[in-house]
Design goal:
With 477 residues, this protein is of the alpha/beta class. It has helices at residues 12-16, 51-67, 90-109, 125-134, 150-160, 205-208, 217-229, 256-264, 283-290, 308-313, 320-333, 352-365, 392-415; strands at 25-27, 42-47, 70-71, 80-85, 114-119, 140-142, 164-166, 174-176, 187-191, 193-194, 213-214, 234-238, 270-274, 298-300, 338-345, 370-374, 421-429, 436-440, 446-450, 459-467, 472-476. The structure holds 5'-deoxyadenosine (5AD) and iron/sulfur cluster.
Length: 477
């Protein structure tokens, strides 16, 4: 067995370094000998965090299926329990540690169960040491850069019954063609790039996901054409900062705007993307968005704060004024666009006046939704060392005040569609009443209406009758 002891330790210092080495695109190849190692075994994956993790879990499930494992619905039934973790805020990590504690009991009844922890948490030094020292029940730990090595880890864990910890601090290459078991049959996540080079001072992502690496345009276009052929209606392009797509290419000039315009020519009916960075969102991208077609009129554009002083401390590289200018440009070219955002309150040094500026910006920008968070210090990031004197109670109070205004925006955004006929991509049936279906409009508004289950995966016309804060209610026309 390989000696894993010298590989396990991730280093946040090393993870900060950006190597000039060019990214290689490799083709995934499974070791034929390992196909079948899971033939008599089952697995479950629990995914925490963002869409990036959801997409990674689809790849992990794809690999597990090729190895012969069967997916099951409960941890009790599963021979392999995989936790794909998130490190973005402390509460995400607490949930995973709580879950590991709860699951420990299952090993008493079945010591052969394998516990796997992967995703962003293992990329943090402190977390890996904690798992190593305090969570003996965990058998395999790997990070975000070595998903493709899962077959090898599982094989060794079964053969040698020893713990395997392998986390790379340096991002690897791009591995194409990892089998992917998609969670839905009509809507798909498509990674267009990996990593982030922004280094916002509060954020752990540039450390856990490595440097920005863009997939080759043709690989993305081919994947989306294939999805359209298979009957998929919608794709969501994924990247930590999709507007930086292509900046790492050394042999071609090809930007996010170029990608969007090439994807407009495919048969996929709906294109969404996340996440955008206000500094890098350029005029070309806005112009392509304005031509509409299959690009949906919704943009998630995280602003984080409305105070220039705080934006500077966050290293966001834009001002409240330049952010509002972009919003204005978007609205002048795409008048009905729906814009949503992310906001952090209680960043170190945020005063009541800074916070009031955020509230004013939320009003001015007319957001139709926002994910709002209290700042959570992440070990190894600059902001975790900034002095922070605001008591937690005050931060909670700010969050409540912010959410009140944000919720008014949600309601306003829904209200503007009353009496309209909207196109809804039907995604699910209510678990309370199987005659009630749900789906999303182009503007990403949730609509509930009565209809038959076989409409799931189809795009149907619905007349909106009533708007609530979180959803619309309508009838099929
Ligand atoms: N504390 C609180 N919120 C954070 N986010 C990222 N890092 C932190 C942190 N340390 C938020 C940002 C980002 C979203 C994905 O999570 O708002 O846009
Ligand atoms: Fe984190 Fe900033 Fe990169 Fe987003 S852009 S992942 S907030 S560092």
């Amino acid at each position: 067995m390989k000696d894993y002891s010298k590989y396990f330790a991730p280093s946040l210092k090393d993870a900060r370094k950006r190597l000039s080495k060019e990214t290689q695109n490799l083709q995934y190849q499974i070791d034929e000998k390992l196909i079948g190692i899971g033939n008599d075994k089952t697995y479950i994956i629990k995914t925490y965090g963002c869409q990036g993790n959801l997409a990674d879990s689809e790849k992990i499930a794809g690999i597990m299926d090729v190895l012969g494992f069967t997916e099951v619905d409960t941890e009790e039934e599963a021979d392999v329990i995989i936790l794909n973790t998130c490190a973005i805020r402390d509460n995400a990590e607490k949930r995973v540690f709580g879950e590991l504690g709860r699951l420990k009991g299952l090993k008493v009844f079945d010591p052969n169960k394998l516990f796997v922890v992967c995703g962003c948490m293992p990329q943090e030094e402190g977390t890996v040491n904690k798992i190593k020292d305090q969570y003996n029940q965990v058998d395999i730990v790997f990070g975000t850069h070595n998903i493709h090595k899962l077959p090898e880890y599982l094989n060794e864990a079964y053969l040698y019954k020893e713990r395997i910890l392998e986390v790379f601090s340096y991002e690897g290459d791009i591995v194409e063609n990892i089998p992917q078991k998609r969670a839905h049959e009509y809507s798909a996540w498509v990674n267009i790039m990996y990593g982030c080079d922004e280094f916002c001072t509060y954020c752990i992502v540039p450390y856990t996901r490595g440097k920005e690496r863009s997939r080759r345009p043709q690989d993305i276009i081919d994947e989306i054409k294939e999805l359209a052929r298979e009957g998929y209606k919608e794709v969501t392009l994924l990247g930590q900062n999709v507007n930086a797509y292509g900046k790492d290419f050394t042999d071609i000039n090809y930007t996010f705007a170029n990608l969007l315009s090439d994807l407009q020519k495919t048969d996929i009916e709906r294109i969404r993307f996340t996440t955008s960075h206000p500094r890098d969102l350029d005029d070309e991208t806005i112009k392509v968005m304005a031509t509409g077609k299959n690009i949906m009129p919704h943009l998630h554009l995280p602003v984080q704060s409305g105070s220039n002083r705080i934006l500077k401390a966050m290293n966001r590289k834009y001002t409240k004024e330049s952010y509002l200018e972009k919003i204005q440009k978007l609205r002048s070219l795409i008048p009905d666009i729906s814009i949503t955002t992310d906001i952090i309150v209680g960043f170190p040094g945020e005063t009541e006046e800074d916070f009031l500026e955020t509230l004013r910006l939320v009003e001015e920008a007319n957001f139709e939704g926002a994910f709002t968070f209290i700042f959570s210090p992440r070990e190894g990031t600059p902001a975790s060392k900034f002095s922070d004197e605001t008591p937690l109670a005050e931060k909670k109070d700010r969050l409540l005040r912010l959410n009140k205004i944000v919720n008014e925006g949600y309601a306003r955004g829904n209200k503007r569609f009353v009496s309209d006929v909207v196109k809804v991509l039907v995604t699910s049936v209510s678990n309370k009443n199987d005659k009630v279906l749900s789906g999303y409009t182009p503007h990403f508004k949730l609509v509930n209406f009565e209809g038959s289950k076989d409409l799931i995966g189809k795009i149907v016309d619905v007349k909106v009758e009533k708007a609530y804060t979180w959803h619309l209610k309508g009838v099929i026309v």
